[in-house]
Amino acid sequence: MPEKVLIVDDEKDFLDSVSERLGLRGMQVSTSTHPKEALKKIENESFDAVILDFQMPEMDGLAVLEVLKKKNPDLQVILLTGHATVERGIEAMKLGALDFVEKPIDLETLTKKIKQAKAQKMLIVEKKVEDRIQKIITDKGW
Amino acid sequence: MDYNRPAVYQSGLQFFGTISASASHEIKNTLAVISESAGLMQDLLLAAEHGRALDESRLKKSIERIQANVVRGDGIVKNMNAFVHSVDRIFRQTDVVMVVDLIAALVKRLLDMQGISLKTETPTGPAVVVTAPFFLKNLIWLLIDFAIARVAASKILCLVVEKRGDCIEIDLSGLESFDELPSDCLPTEPMQFLVDMLESELEIDADGGRLMLRLRSVSRVD
Q: Is the entire prediction scored with pTM above 0.80?
């Protein structure tokens, strides 16, 4: 199944180019230029990875990340930054980001990280299913 | 004149840092678009080499994006260049219209991040004074920075330059009323130092949400 990705960045030209390129690599890509619009999309759809720009109007990437992780702790988020400093990386990881990527991006690196995000998400889903089945078995006295 | 006051240093350095950081971020974004557009062209050509029909409209769009962002990047660098050269000489003949236009361009992204628009109105023709252009820009930025935190619901700030007799006035409006602030909060020490240094006057209309800087006739050169 193709990876399902949401990219959130206020630079429309950048969004259009990246989403086309990821689409050519077989991914299903949604885009959003505004953080609040993106939060609504995430409420209605499930994504394997959300790619968030660090700097956006009205609500920056870290603020969005915080809201996302509170609502959906299993969501895999990759941050995009113009300047990948150690401090930013630590900030992002503390809030639960999977990783961060510096702009201009290397698309192959981003693609790998998206696949990694999907794998991570599947591990969580599988573990939840396993736990649920274990509980059912235990409850039924098997 | 004592340029070693901590208020001036800190304010000036912070201003320089804020503007430089914003510009470098914008340039990074521009480069990112150029990089992705070039990458997309590469992807399309690679697909064509493997037998897929070349999508000329997508190729054309990528070329247009690259060209537009080269122009955009060049604009950012030009503005930064004008900004950094404003410290070449402390005092010199300065067109206030150009100062305001430059500041508006430099702070646009910072204001966009807050969802705020800055509209400027300037007279036709230059408004020339002998002043310290870097410190004038610094002072205008301090006023805008103050306004950002107190912008009215419309989220539109207006910066108007007017020639009035022997003076040049720079009027910043669009703030909500701030008359609840203690009177000694404004002007701040860096603002007051710069107002004095530039031989100017700062009029504060707290109720009306306006700040007006008047560059005095003693600085004016015809």
A: yes
